[in-house]
Structures are given as structure tokens and as C-alpha cells.
Amino acid sequence: MHFSSAVLSPSLSASSDFADKLGQRAGRCMMVRITGTSLDQDTAEFLRQHQIGGVCLFRNNMRDAQQLRSLIADLRAVLGAEALIAVDQEGGAVTRTTWLPVAPSAMSLGASHDPALCYEVGAAVARGIKALGFNWNFAPVVDVNSNPHNPIIAERSFGMQAEQVSTLATAWMQGSLAQGVACCLKHFPGHGDTQYDSHRALPTVDKPRAELEQVEFLPFRQCAKAAPAIMTAHILYSALDADLPATLSPKILRGVLREEMGFAGVIVTDDMAMQAIANQYGAGNAAVLALQAGADLVLALGSRTEQLETWQAICDALVSGAITQTDNDASLRRLQQLAQAYPSQQSAEYDNQADSALMASAWQRGISAYGELRLPAPGASLRLVMRADAASDGVSDVGVTVEQMRQLLAAHFPLEIVTFDDAAQFDWATLPNDGRYTILASTTRARYTRHTNDISDASDTSDTSQRRTSWAPDLHLVLWGPYLAFDINAPALISYGFATPALDAVLACLLGKLTPSAPLQIKPQ
Question: Which helix (H) or strand (E) holds 431?
């Protein structure tokens, strides 16, 4: 890749090796998102011309195993032998494939508190995605679930205790690494105690340094010893850096993570198109700031225009010396080592039967009960109340649908379904009190709030008993955000996720074939 002399600073000759490879140096520090389920000529040329280092794929890039294997093979042919092909395959709600066995969410695994099970689940996840050609999984989440009003972590965390998160996340990670798939701890220094989603705004954590050490830092300190990569958080930690969010902070990335914790692996940013960063700093400028702060790889998952802006800004920073050759060399070396240690190589055809059985058993072990359950009698008439749409939180894929719940229950119980568009506007008093066994299925993360005194006020956390509703179902099925169990005055079954094996486990409980025995992973708030 050559640049005209007008682009280069006077201190760099266009014939120098460094200047000659500026485009490659910039591109290798970027991972992008693409559109479509196949690699079109325009995208292939963009990746090749700008020598992009990696691609992260999402559900919109996936149709079935054959198609995805073909797409990844084409990407590898364009990107080269050291291609990094990544996916967010955490388990639970953050699962990009629809045909591989779905792992339990981290909190479901936390309910088992079994490191051996976490190891096996991490290994099974890796086997499935490796067969498709992925060599990097942006998991596990090692955020400590310390804020019940966190809109984006909750069941993605292994638990409320830092030691538990450390132990179980380490086991999960080791299972993945043993299968030849790189992991990525996220989100450093910790996303568990925020009330805002960094996809939409810049959260701030005002904890003192001592408290961060005891909670947020602990899992990273313990897990980082074996981790090949760590992802940054777009969060302002006032005790660490009062001015810059972690992704852009040399004090946090170089000071805390590299120097204090001794982390020697790859530092990758969270998506730089997220509003916490993009709105305030801009794509290109933010990318340069992140690399200056100590990141090795920028997740440029925005539009093609933003990706080009990012690439050009990195080139300009390399030319001007704003990003030094020494730092860039170190980043490229770490990225090369990661790709060589975990190459993208599609394995033999994947047999998922054993892993499907493992995941089903793991989901069953994670079902928790809240309150004293009174299950429906065999063949009892049921009334199911649930939200009409299967909402996404922007990170996770869509939740359980009305049709899925119909299919789950109608084969075993006479069923009536009542749906609502907005819990805050629904007139709960219109639900008849006719003796029919009523189930409320909560299928989102969003907490219930006060409306017409018919459902609890989750915004008032002073006294749980004062937030009880005048209407209550016989049973509350909490199929996503676990804290919703505390918003309704009813016994609850909590699955920490809505994958098919999770719903099967819930049905087994309803039929009396499975007794929920996992300890509750959350506290009333």
C-alpha cells in the first residue's frame, strides 16, 4: 500500500519500509463488521485493499452451517492465514448461531456453581464455533453482577460475588482454550455496576479505587493470567481517570491493565460505534485515542464510511507519530501471536448430539425458584399473559415469542393467551378472576414500573414488600431479566435465559418432572 508524498509527513520517506506498509499496519489494527451472508466483490476488495485484520460476524451474517462455513472460508482467503474471525457466543441470550447447541447463560451456570460443568460448557461452545471456522470468541463475561438495575449485564454475569465469577469464568475459558478457540474477557475494568447501557450512553462508575480492587478488578486479575485477550469497557471510572472512559484511557489500559496487572495479551476495544464513544469522540479520533491508550485492536463495527474514517485516521496517526512505531509493532506482534496460536481452521463435521445433551442438562441444573411454587394440576386450563413482541436489548438477539410459548404449553394444557404491547399501559384489572391458573411470562430485561397500581413499582427499591401488585398470577415465569421476579407478588420460576433447552426445563418443572433446585443467583431489590 503506497501513499502519495502529500500524505506523508516530511520526516517519513515514501520509500521507507515503515511508510510503505502504513496501510497494512492500520488495517491489521482493525476488526470490522460486514453485511450479508456471502462475501460480495465490493466487500472483499475493501478488506483486501485496506488489509483489514479481522471480521466479527453476527446473526445477520448467518443462515445455516453450510453457508457460514463458506462465508468464513472466503473471508480467510481474503484476509490471509492470520485472519481473526470473531463471534459473540457467550451463551444464553447472546448467541449468534441458531443451530448449534445453545449454552446456558453465565448466571445459569453460576447457579450450579460447578467449575467442571463450566469447563465442559466452554469446551462445547468452542467445538461448535471452531467447526464453522471461528478462532476467537468474545466471551466469557467476567463482570460482577453488583447492580440489580444494570440494563445490559444481569444474567450474562456468573454471579454477584467476585470470587465466584473468577472461578467459573476461568473454568469456562479453559474449556474453550483447550479446544483451540481464543477467548476474550470482558468488559475491563467491569460493567457490572452501571445503570446505563454503553451502547446508548456513557456510564460512570464512581466507586473508590479500593472497592474496585475488591469487586471489579478481582476476576480480571485472576482470569487474565491465562487469557489471550481482554475487551475494554466504554465506561468512565472517576477514581481511575476522571476525564476519559476506559477504552480511551492510558491510565487504565497501560497503567492498570498492562503495568499493574501484568497483562501481556491482546487488548481489544468494545464496538467503537456504540453511542458512549461515537457520539462524543467520532470514529476516527476515538480509534486513535484507543490505540494511544494501549489497545491493540479497534472494533470498527459501524458503517463503511466510519470504517474508512477509522483506517485513514490510524494511517495519519502513524505518519505523524501520534501512534508510535514501537507501540504499533508491539500491537501487531500480539495480534500475530494470537492468530498463530488460534488459527482459523474449519474442523471436521461437527456432531452436536453429545453437546446438545450437555447443554440441556446444564440448563436444567440452573433453574431457580423464588417463593413457594404451586404448580398447575395436570391438564388444568391455563391463561398465559405475556408481551406480544420478542424484544431485543440491542446486544442480545430477540427473546422468546408468543408462538414459542404456545407450542410449549398447548400440547399439555388447554391454553388461553393474553398479550400486551406495553406493560406500563396495559390494564391489568381487565384480566378475569375466573379461577383459571394464570401464568405471567416475562420475556425482556426491562423491569416492571408503576401503572394504575396494578403492577409493582420497580423504581422504588426501598422496600420490596411495598412494591407488590394488586394483581398477581399464580406463577411468574422469568425467562430473561431475573430481577423481574421481585417486581411481581407471585412465586417464580427463573431460567436465566430463553433458549429452547431452557424452555424445555421450565416445562419439565410445570409438569412436575423436574424440581428446581439451583440456589437463587440474585437478591431481592
Answer: none
Q: Give me Rg for the CA atoms of the chain.
A: 24
Q: Catalytic: which of 88, 143, 270, 474?
A: 270
pLDDT-wise least confident of 6-10, 38-42, 229-233, 439-443: 6-10
Name the active-site residue from 50, 113, 199, 234: 199
Closest CA to 300 of 334, 264, 270, 256: 270
**Has residue 242 got a pLDDT over 80?**
yes
What is the pairing mode between strands 136-137 and 229-232?
unpaired
Q: Dihedral of the CA atoms 363, 365, 369, 374 (nearest 10)? A: 90
Could you give the CA distance from residue 488 to residue 458 in angstroms, rounded to a whole number?
9
C-alpha 108/C-alpha 124 separation (Å) is 16
Q: Which three cell numbers stand for residue 8?
A: 506523508
Q: Round to whole Å and give the CA distance between 498 and 507.
A: 12
Residue 178 is predicted with a pLDDT of 98
pLDDT (tens digit, 9 = 90+) per residue, 338-356? 999 999 998 767 889 999 9
Distance (Å, whole) CA 443 – CA 290: 36
Regarding beta strands 229-232 and 266-271, do their DSSP bridges make them parallel or antiparallel, or are they unpaired? Answer: parallel
From 89, 85, 98, select the one nearest 136 (Cα to Cα): 85
CB 106 within 8 A of CB 143: no
Amino acid in the structure at residue 289: L
Strands 185-188 and 54-57, by their bridges, are unpaired
What gap in Å lies between CA 357 and CA 371, rounded to an integer?
A: 29
Contact 335, 111 (CB under 8 A): no
Report residue 144 as a C-alpha cell.
460482577
CA dist 67 to 34, 62, 397, 443, 446, Å? 15, 7, 20, 30, 35
Is the confidence at residue 238, as pLDDT, over 50? Answer: yes
C-alpha span between 520 and 264 (Å, rounded): 36
The residues facing 297 across adjacent strands are: 268
The question of whether 199 is a catalytic residue gets the answer yes
> What is the C-alpha separation between 313 and 428, in angstroms, rounded?
54
